[in-house]
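Input/output pair, single chain:
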Amino acid sequence: MEMDELREKTRILERTILLRGLSWCHMAYYEYTRSDRRLSSAYTFRKIRSYLGNIPWFLESV
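Output:
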């Protein structure tokens, strides 16, 4: 495998992993904002909001 091909496939894999993580954050945000949620962590919710607030940066960095 050529280095250019490896770089391109790695870039695609990184974007796929990033999008999966962001979709998880959206699901978690939804769960954390429901009024009937019993378990919660203020630290985790802050981290989720931090990630969702930086989507342009994440997408540009990959």
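The chain has a mean pLDDT of 88. The helical segments are 3-32, 42-53, 55-61.
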